[in-house]
Amino acid sequence: MKQVDLKNEYSFIINNEEKKFDVTSVYCIGYSGSDVKKVQEHIDELAELGIPKPPEIPMLYPVRVTSLNQKGNMEILGTMTSGEAEIVLIFGDTEEEIYVSVGSDHTDRGLESVDINKSKQICDKPLAQEAWPLSKLEDNWNELKLASKVLINGSWEPYQEQSVTAILPLEKVLDYLKNKKLDLKNSVVFAGTVPLLNGFKYGDGYEVTLLDPRKDQSITCSYTVKNLEI
């Protein structure tokens, strides 16, 4: 039987034009907070809930390419999954061609206590349909903000809101990826999130936003969640 080479093509609106990427790999960077002490405190808190400590900080998790979801809805299994706003780096045909967007590292929190990487594989990774060239953000990167909301009982509740300075500086993220000796061409990297306002919440939908206050622009990804569990 002849093997079919399937493309994993995703589209983004960049500078008001559609650009398609044949994505070959996807990664999530965990524990990428800029305050190492707070990161360690968070790891210790999670350990008390039975979530294993990572072997290194930050920690790189490869995830399936087919997990990327731009549809605005996703299916899950169980009641203990949740999303969170993430800076997303999109690499083009060269590692110097980088775009920035926002997505959600939706994760099965119950499975997280068994195996963190498996908990990331089982859920889709919702991703916005718009992106900005990194070259247009480098002069005001530290002014960017991440925010999210969660839909609970029909109402949207604030879930996250903080400057991206809570995440490792961009140059350190790029150096970290380079040191991993990855082929980043045509890859997507969920590069970090900001703290939750009041712990995990399991809702019927999530809205994640990347804001650029200086230029008064934003990118938003919103999606609903359908639990398949009977």
UniProtKB/TrEMBL annotation:
Domain of life: Bacteria
A Pfam entry, by short name: DUF2848
Protein name: DUF2848 family protein
Lineage of the species this protein comes from: Bacteria, Bacillati, Bacillota, Bacilli, Bacillales
